Amino acid sequence: MTSQTGSEELRITNDVDVKHYLMIDAYQTWWVQGKAYLCRIVDMLNMGYVDEVLFGREVVDELPRLVAEWVRLAQIRKRRGTADPPAPF
Hints:
Elements: H1 6-14, E1 21-24, H2 27-32, H3 34-46, E2 52-55, H4 57-80
Parallel strand pairs: 1-2
């Protein structure tokens, strides 16, 4: 019996590739406690828990690129007819 994560299940059943981002933007966490966190970050990347790690100013600088990619993927899914229905607000 194979165990699937929620991300794997979404990719298989709904053709949705979920990305996981780790954004580190705390001076104390990174610059003071950095070595221990660096090991954990490398582990998360190697184990596939995180697709991309953004540090400090990079969070703000890279967010437009990430959002553009999300919009592009959403448009592709909409054209394919696999887009999620609107939320019932």
